[in-house]
Amino acid sequence: MRIALALATFLAGGLGARLDGWLEAQAGATFPTAATMPTPGHIVLIWHDATFFFAPREDATWTREGSADAGARVLGQAAPARVLRLHGDFVEVAPLTPGPHADPHCAQASLASPGDLVLERLFVRRADLAPVLGTPLSQVFPDGTGFTAKPGTPVAKVSAATLLLLDGLLVSGPSDLPVRVSYAAAPPAEADGGALGDTLTSLEGLEVGSARVPAPPNWFFGSRGVAHPSSEPGRALFTVETRCGAATMLVRSSDLSPVAPRRSTERGVGFGGGGAYTNAGGPRGSDTWRLPAGTALAAAGVGRIARAAENLHFRKGDPGCVTAFIRVSPSWHASRVVQPPTWTLKLCPPSR
Question: Which of 85, 108, 155, 323 is close enough to 331 for a disulfide, judged by CB 3.0 to 4.6 Å?
């Protein structure tokens, strides 16, 4: 039995070649279907190519901007949202706010929306939810390498293999791993990085279960973890913890460098978010009127969709409508294959 693991870093190797290798590992991936659906309060992951709706019906789509071809689905290209209600084939969700104080989850992407609005609800099809582990999964191999994965970890299948994405770690294991798939799971706890006292300064000799794979550029300053003695001369076992699990790999002892333990408040892996503002920050002066922060905003023919996060200013005579947008902001390492569209929707306050 073998398992391969891909780490991301700028060190030791060409950026393009490592990115290509990481994506090639996911070529032809399929995504299993979960037997059960999430319940309100659970976190789900929404694929980057999902269609967004303002009501639970097929004719209530936001307006799509951009190409109809969003690119292939690959692990890490699904954004988190919290389930509000189920409506047949539709799921009503509220986007999660990206950032260090957001709900913890195993997503590498986020839902980008205007910074001066709070989108309170939107709808997606059940088919546009990405599968994740529903139960914990772990494997340990005779050489001491292995991994653990928590519920909520993104999962896929390729020919004769199972793929798991532990934050920036891509783990590829045997196809017969006992995987139980879900569409939602309780969010994992943050990894405590206080004990991570070594840095992997090179990826030469990276092995897990005697397998070796390319390493894509995703971890910016080298991977931190804990080193342990190995039975092989000149080798060490190196364990990296993430929010979604941990992986232990066999590395060259010379590739490890001691560092000061990381404070528990530091994050082991960083994620990009995205956002902009509507055009309603607007003019100021005697010829303007103000829409107060907290004002409800609705789409035509349906109820409340969002609220103003701050005071919005409009010229007198302007009805005070804004154009909101939503899009999946993916992890940059798959930008070659993913082109998420932007969806827009006109929102207006109650009649004045």
Answer: 108
Cα(167)–Cα(104) distance, rounded to whole angstroms?
Answer: 11
Task: Confirm if 44 and 93 have CB atoms less than 8 A apart.
Answer: yes
- pLDDT tens per residue across span 252-290: 787 777 765 444 333 333 233 344 556 555 555 567 888
The answer to whether 43 and 187 have CB atoms below 8 angstroms apart is yes
How does DSSP classify residue 51?
A: P
Phi, psi of 193 (to 5 degrees): -90, 10
Pairing mode, strands 137-140 and 146-149: antiparallel
Give the whole-angstrom CA distance, residue 274 versus residue 109: 9
215 within 8 A of 7, measured Cβ to Cβ: yes
Cβ neighbours, 10 Å, residue 240? 27
**Two structure tokens written together for 166:** 């532990």
Three-state secondary-structure class, residue 255: helix
pTM value? 0.79
